[in-house]
TrEMBL record:
A Gene Ontology molecular function term of the record: metal ion binding
Record-annotated Mycothiol-dependent maleylpyruvate isomerase metal-binding domain positions: 9-126
Residue intervals of the MDMPI C-terminal domain: 138-220
Taxonomic source organism: Streptomyces harbinensis
Name the record gives this protein: TIGR03083 family protein
NCBIfam families: maleylpyruvate isomerase family mycothiol-dependent enzyme (TIGR03083)
Length: 231
């Protein structure tokens, strides 16, 4: 289930700006969860991804991966330009056809995907600088749903993760919402703030992180979430 376009565009705008702020920090800082990348490498990845999606929506193709420019000042300016181009490209009817790597093949797919991608990498960048701010509860809830609806099935289709044999339930206790991944009745439940649950699914937090609590068959639940569910 997706949200209204305004939700994603607002989130994307906020996260793109927050990521840009980190580029005033140490660009040689290592990005723990994207090793061996530095913050400079992460900026190149995100900026290139922005322009990849601009081409995917404007030209209906997914083969454009422009490299980042040399030099830190040029990198910062290029990232800003890529962010502006992405926001302009996605500020349209979500039903507009576009190239995507998974259905639906519309701009709406990218509105959600880029908002969530930028949120995770904003956290990565802030974490690299020692000042990570957790995802907001509502954006995180949408991100959890996107993992189960889009990213995990894609990992299975690509042969990078097994089809789950059992089910696990995630409960966001700050929102009173829950999700079940896998077939049948859940063998275990993991409860905690939505932001922590999202970071867990993206490999940015352990299931023993503060605020997370298991009930049921913890070992079986861990095996389901081991996936990997995300790239």
């Amino acid at each position: 289930m997706t949200r209204e376009p305004a939700f994603y565009l607002r989130l994307l705008r906020t996260e793109l700006a927050a990521f840009r702020t980190t580029l005033d920090g140490d660009l040689d800082a290592p990005v723990t969860h994207c090793a061996p990348w530095t913050l400079r490498d992460l900026a190149g990845h995100l900026g290139s991804g922005n322009l990849w999606v601009v081409t995917a929506t404007a030209e209906g193709r997914g083969d454009h991966h422009p490299p980042a420019p040399e030099g830190d000042a040029a990198l910062r300016a290029w990232y800003e330009e890529s962010a502006a181009a992405l926001l302009a490209a996605l500020d349209t009817d979500p039903a507009t056809p576009a190239w995507t790597f998974r259905a639906p093949h519309t701009v709406g797919f990218w509105q959600r995907r880029r908002a969530q991608e930028t949120l995770i990498h904003r956290w990565d960048a802030q974490h690299a600088l020692g000042a990570a701010q957790p995802p907001g509860a509502e954006p995180a809830a949408d991100g959890i749903a996107e993992v189960f609806e889009v990213m995990a099935p894609r990992m299975i289709d690509r042969g990078l993760a097994p089809v789950p044999e059992r089910a696990v339930r995630l409960v966001a206790d700050d929102l009173g919402r829950e999700w079940t991944y896998g077939p049948g009745e859940p063998v275990a439940t993991l409860t905690g703030p939505a932001g922590q649950l999202l970071l867990l699914l993206w490999g940015r937090a352990a299931d023993s992180a503060p605020g997370l609590e298991w009930s049921g068959d913890r070992a079986a639940g861990r095996r389901v979430l081991a996936g990997p569910l995300t790239p």
